[in-house]
Amino acid sequence: MPTPKKKTSRSRRNMRRSHDGLEAPSMAIDKKSGELVRPHRAHKGADGAYYYKGKQISATNS
Mind giving me the DSSP string for 1-62? Predict the structure, then answer.
């Protein structure tokens, strides 16, 4: 197996890893309740029902 001819510097190694950092998930504000929600996902409201795009998609869980 071939081996590198020269040592990779810390700077070059770290530049290669520059895209590996974690980023915060995107958030949207729910129009009905005003709370932060993940976009394109159903979320549970305070009443226990699930909402998507501001509309109720399931009944409350009793």
Answer: ----SSPPPHHHHHHHTTT----PPP-EE-TTT--EE-TTS-EE-TTS-EEETTEE-S----
- The 10 Å Cβ neighbour count of residue 52 is 13
Residue 18 included in any domain: no
Count how many domains the chain has: 1
The tens digit of pLDDT for each residue in 18-61 reads 998 889 999 998 877 788 999 999 988 888 889 888 888 988 76
Q: pTM value?
A: 0.54
